[in-house]
Amino acid sequence: MSKLVSIWHFTVRAGLSDSLGGVMVQTRIHDFLSEAVTARGAEQALIDFTDRTYSWDDLQTAVDDAEAELKAIGLRPGDRVVLVFENCISAAAFIFAASRMDAIVVVVNARLTGAELERIIAHSDPSIVVFCTQASDAAQAHSVECSATKVYGAFVEAAIFKRASSTPEPVFSAPSEQVAILLYTSGTTGAPKAAMLTHGNLIAAAHASAKVRDMVATDMCYLALPLSHIFGLVTFLAVCSAKAAMRLEAKFSVERLYDALQSNVTHLPAVPQMHAHLFHYVREQNKPACNRGVLRYVSSGGAPLDPVWKREAEAFYGLALQNGYGLTESAAGVCLTVNKLGDPDISAGRPMQGCVLKLDMHSVGAEPDKGIGEILIGGPQVMKGYFRDADESAKVLTDDGFFRTGDLGRCDEEGRLHIVGRSKELIIRSGFNVYPVEVEAALTDHPEVIVAGVVGRTVSGNEEVLGFVKIAPECTLTEADLKAFVHDKLAPYKRPSRIILAPDLPAAPTGKILKSKLIDFFSKDLTNPQESETGGGI
């Protein structure tokens, strides 16, 4: 058996106490909405990208209308609903409406290409595809391609496409068994892989997130993180669980963020790139540094924390910057810091409520003498498995219910987790997950590319995607040619910022590309800015 070292353990309760001293117990994620309507019906719940304000009663009406549309088109319990969107009232409405009907929502960023979307639809086998068209030109374009039918209601606007056939999944009364969300972690090219997140997973994660952020009903959360990403989705549910309010932005806008911070925003969860854009904007526009106003909580997630950048951020906000660690398969919430201003800690923090961590010292890349092992996660946040993929599920889920992250970490004397490396080679760009295999597949689709290797490189608090391809010596293919070739195959944040073409790549005797050597091997080529571009972003 592998040597396992337990790090930390918090127990989880069935629910959180409300202001009246009762205990709320949820079995479905839409219970958060029902409870908020009962407690705060006429109070402000959401401000959308048009600055329109919705009360909790308004949100419930939007959900009612969305549910009516889903019922009218024949949605059944256990069916999948692919939801293509950028943050808006209709996305929230259809997520909760599907929950009411025990259907499973497949959350998809509208900025994916048509080919990527088609692969997700083919794999998830939905009965219905919903495009939230009001807030997203990309969703509108996808809806036109599918000849979807426009529908209107308190959710404002959407387009719905009914597929000819689909097989429902079994439905369970237990929240720990009933799947609420499918979230794709990789494989939008090649073999798809979707984490099955149950209502129990998401409820536990939302409670833990709200608790560690000390979120209360009077708070206002600025939410530009996409609800199609686990960080944004769980934050949305945490706000609902706390009966707080949110500014739900369709796209990140540094101008809107700056203005919001001058008003009533109390919580700012973001990825490093968002913070960096804000700092640059303030300097470029010669605006005053952040007026804290009522802001009391700032966090950064989705990328490792640089100590110099952390100090800059804390000086800007006048608040401690909290850092965390999480994965789609663990419904985001694993660890989070709870530090005071000026604390030099750059760890991922201690485990959140309900989470149990172990280190496997026998995993690939482990260094037991340094206390470094593979991070295993247990607790109610851990996914049920990968959708219709028992083999892949068995590879990552242990018999006792722990999830093998593939990430390497260590625990310090204070019980805080430090991320050492990502053995899965995951690249986190502007808070979005980029899996090298996806980008490699797009590059090797070109007939003149022999092999390709993709790695990430830290730059300005973010990670950029770098592509390296082997071509024949007589080949005339250029970097610009390849960037144009993959442009429509990959979402913006997946596109390489540089593609290096060479007659040979560093490789093992077996022919396997030695990815660890690529950046050093081509360092001179990478310093040449001639064909460099920013690629995708937030």
Lay out the secondary structure.
Blueprint: E1 4-9, H1 30-40, E2 44-47, E3 53-55, H2 56-72, E4 80-85, H3 89-100, E5 104-109, H4 114-124, E6 128-131, H5 137-145, E7 149-153, E8 156-162, E9 179-186, E10 193-198, H6 199-212, E11 220-223, H7 230-242, E12 245-248, H8 254-261, E13 267-270, H9 272-284, E14 297-300, H10 307-317, E15 321-325, E16 335-336, E17 350-351, E18 356-360, E19 373-378, E20 385-386, H11 390-396, E21 403-411, E22 417-422, E23 427-429, E24 432-434, H12 436-444, E25 449-459, E26 462-471, H13 479-486, E27 498-502, H14 518-521, H15 523-526
Parallel strand pairs: 2-12, 4-5, 4-6, 5-9, 11-12, 13-14, 14-15, 26-27
Antiparallel strand pairs: 1-18, 2-3, 6-8, 7-8, 9-10, 10-20, 15-16, 16-17, 18-19, 19-21, 21-22, 23-24, 25-26
Helix pairs in contact: 1-2, 1-7, 2-3, 6-7, 8-9
**Judging by the overall fold, what is the CATH architecture of the domain at 427-526?**
2-Layer Sandwich
- Determine the number of helices (DSSP H or I, runs of at least 4 residues): 15
Give the overall shape, derived from the CA principal axes: globular
The rounded Rg comes to 23 Å
Measure the end-to-end span.
Answer: 43 Å
Structural class call reads: alpha/beta
CATH top level assignment of the domain at 427-526: Alpha Beta
Strand content: 25-35%
Spans of 5+ residues with little confidence (pLDDT < 50)? 8-23, 531-538
Mean pLDDT: 88
Oligomer: single chain
Q: Give a quick account of the main beta sheet: strands, pairing sense, barrel closure.
A: 8 strands, mixed
CATH superfamily of the domain at 427-526: ANL, C-terminal domain
Q: What strand order characterises the main sheet?
A: 7-8-6-4-5-9-10-20
